[in-house]
Amino acid sequence: MGMITTTDTALDEKAMIASAERALSEIADVRREVSKVIFGQEQVVESTLLAILSGGHALLVGVPGLAKTKLVTTLGTALGLDASRIQFTPDLMPSDILGSEVMDQDEHGRRSFRFVKGPVFAQLLMADEINRASPRTQSALLQSMQEYHITIAGQRYDLPAPFHVLATQNPLEQEGTYPLPEAQLDRFLLQVDVGYPELAAERQILLDTTGISHAHANAVLDAERLRAIQHLIRQMPVSEVVVDAILSLVRSARPGQGNAETDKHVAWGPGPRAGQALMLCARARALYEGRLAPSIDDVHALAEPVLQHRMALTFAARAEGMAVRDVIAALIKQNKA
């Protein structure tokens, strides 16, 4: 009996390695297609793709004009997903996102209600400038992100699978915005900071985007294949050492856990969802970089996008000009020591 189990395990391992290698080459193809259209910004592309490969949603934060919208449409094409976009504005209503019931009348004068689906019924949804909409509208979207279905007039409607939201947000100092509440930020697997491009990338943007022809990405995957890769990522083995590194990092970011620096600077820290995000994204990052198992380096590389929107600094730390990323960088240093 022992023999059969061993052979099965060996077969499983062989099959696992074969499907992981297929996924590796497909992910490399997706990266290549995206790089035809998006210049530089490797870190942003990587984090956004990792969120999708891990089955989650991402929040892209940056000033306007940094190709966030272009990145989302390019990813939609390369991943073969049905994409839609909502521009958030202060007067946007929940029904503008979810859809609404309209009354139909047949030739006999009988009236009935029919549900017309809103733009949320897409596999890849771009929520542009999510912090411009009212809290009521934000929460309609954020609830659907959590539950993968919506309820209208007591009737449940399931969202497509896969379903990913990539939301963009301008930095919060801008006027006329409603910052997302902490509990809702936690729904995003990663927060990706989009900075200005490097000089070489900006030169390429100028030369390649102001002519007549524009580069286009080709489809590499489709929805079914993406789901298979997402399933594979959840099956990847994670060593005890990596699990310990995740727990140690997440717990050290919480006040009251014996870390003097955290107690001094952090008002509240990340919950268990942060650890879950690190577990999933570390596996996805390993595949993204051509490896079959995640390492402690993956955990440390993902610390900032996973933790920064799940913790807040004390008033005193902010007054000293500290930023969350400084605290995270110090925690990584401590955890490496």
UniProtKB/TrEMBL annotation:
Tell me which residues make up the ChlI/MoxR AAA lid domain.
263-327
Gene Ontology terms for molecular function: ATP binding; ATP hydrolysis activity
Q: Which InterPro entries does this entry report, sorted A to Z?
A: ATPase_AAA-3, CbbQ/NirQ/NorQ/GpvN, ChlI/MoxR_AAA_lid, P-loop_NTPase
Annotated ATPase AAA-3 domain ranges read: 57-190
Q: Which PANTHER family match?
A: MAGNESIUM-CHELATASE SUBUNIT CHLD, MOXR FAMILY PROTEIN
Name this polypeptide is given: MoxR family ATPase
Source species: Allorhizobium terrae
